[in-house]
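Subject: Sanity check before I submit

Could someone independently write out the structure tokens for this chain? I want to compare against mine line by line before I put it in a report. The sequence has 161 residues.
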Amino acid sequence: MRHQVLSCGKYIISCLAIFLMGFLSIVSFFSTAYFKRENFLKESVVAEHVYYRTDFFALNFLVLGIFLMILFLVNRKYAIEKIPTKILVVTAIFYTLFVSVLWVSVSHTYPQADQETVSCAGYLMSLDNFLFLQPGYYMQIYPHQLGLAAVMEVIYRLGVG
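---
Independent answer below. Compare away.
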């Protein structure tokens, strides 16, 4: 009985995830949500306003088609199964790194609000300053951010940030 309940739960969650990811993927082909940078530079602006821009969906479908064609060619005659797993993992890591850096550079975003505070805490940690952990300060109020601040500390100590 327990196995059937778990199987049913997995099926429901999988269907919901597929539906949501499918919906978000389809919507992302047609529009992009963004914030105007000048709104963040005005101190009088309190609320964030989301703007939408219609995308050139034909270009999105063209890029998707090219990507799927490459996957098809690589997988032709089970070629992907002949590639060692370590090479696939390294390729996936470098692909993710490349796309992430590309995304950050073209989206023109910068740390603000929680991101900025956590980044600042990481920087202070790299200088061995832990005053932000005192009662009433950000990290004492939101301790779930400490893990990310610790990662930021390592990045700042390595001199990457």
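---
OP: Matches mine. For the report I'm noting this point. Residues 2-30 form the longest helix (29 residues).
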